Amino acid sequence: MWSWLTKTVFSVVAALLVAKALQVISRVMRTGGKFPDAPSSRKNWFFGHALELSDPAKRVDIIDGWCEAVGTCEFRALSRRALVITEVEDVAKLSSLRPRTVQRSPLMRTLCDYFAPGVFTAEVPQWTVERRIVSPAFHSNARLSEYVPNIVKLSERLCEVVAGKEVAINATMNKFTLDSIGLLGFGQDIDTLRGGDDDAAMFTSCFAILAKRLMAPLPYCKLIPYFGERMDGGKARQRALFQFLEDVVRRGGPDRTVLAKLLEKNLGENNALTDERLVGNLATLFLAGTDTTGTTITWMVKHLAEDSTLQEEARIEARRFANRPDDFGTVPLLRSLFREVLRMEGPVAVLPLQNTTEPVVIAGRTVDPNEYTLIVALRFLGKHRLPPGEKDPTKFDAWRWVDRKEKDGLRPWPKALMPFGFGVRACPGKDLSELEALIAVGALLRRFEMTLVDDGKGPHGAKFAFTMIPSREIYVNFHPI
């Protein structure tokens, strides 16, 4: 009996695997070629460009290289076909079609929904409801001002932690932003900066799991029922995250927290969010607001630490900012530094989309619904599609956006710069991210002389880990002034 059952199970599994392999091969053999092929010496008939893209540390650099060589182009990884979009006009067209005709790619949506089923991946009509509930927690100066005292409190704690030490700023800044989400999001002082809750720090490993799943040759989570989602530890982390946040929602949020605002808005909705969706949006806040802002602050500190002139000028602004930490007009240089980091080293280098219901014309050719994953090359656009006459657009310049003649001391951003996404689907937390960065970096400038530690390994680069992060630890010495 058991022998027959075992043989039957193995036969069914083998048949399913063969069917899947044949499906992949049939898709691989499907002709493409509407657009120039991405140049690659490692492309072959079965894997396509997957072998060249197999190293996460180089993946975005390779895609940027293709953009420089041929502009808008297509590539294939097994049966997945992608179109890399490099022209501002085409991106503007996609922006105008969001969120109804053009949406996030199904793969990206499925992956993110596993850990954070919230406004980031929701599509209409669910997105319309969630956006209406989530946005008020971020989109007003008065609302952001309410968060300032807690950000200042955490910035002072950050200064205490780094004082007089050589610090790996990557991990430290991620802890700062994680603590900020805990305190601003639902009023809980997680205090990972001082080791107060090691379990909360575990949640940041979700990025590594998402990156692994995104680049897996096949979606093993679906291909291998039950065991697939447990192969990389994702299920355990998902359970821990959801349990933690379910408890938070049940307790409710203190006044002046994101959760309090969500609950308040949700009560007035005819189509109120379920507890599951509220938990998902808190998870979105965690995942979208930790590594991304933490990485941006890391690069800001790194550039300040290696340039004494920049540091001194920024320190003058930081001292002025101390008395008015919600007045961005007092810190044009720091804001310019923030923007330049996002342009050159932003945490989001590419944005995967898909036209789901209607054809769209890209680079003069018609793309049918679901024919390609549309890869918007955000970092390439920021570096190579600035207005004509822009001085050294491919080089980092912290002063690039300063213009004392403008009301807020900054030049307007060109259309090519879209580090927070574009159109109505732009990240609702972008202003909060900038506020956190300016207050934290300002506090460090007022308290310390910062010097970059030379580890003898050359310039620091970035690698893909779902978001773009420094490819190795960046160490900075913080000398009290």
Automatic annotation (TrEMBL):
One of its GO terms (molecular function) is iron ion binding. Belongs to the cytochrome P450 family. It comes from the Eukaryota. This is Cytochrome P450. PROSITE patterns: CYTOCHROME_P450. Heme binds at C427. The keyword Heme applies. It comes from Chrysophaeum taylorii. Gene3D superfamilies: Cytochrome P450. Keywords: Heme, Iron, Metal-binding, Monooxygenase, Oxidoreductase, Signal. The keyword ATP-binding does not apply. Its cofactor is heme. It holds the Pfam family p450. InterPro entries: Cyt_P450, Cyt_P450_CS, Cyt_P450_E_grp-I, Cyt_P450_sf, Cytochrome_P450_monoxygenase. Residues 1-21 form the signal peptide.
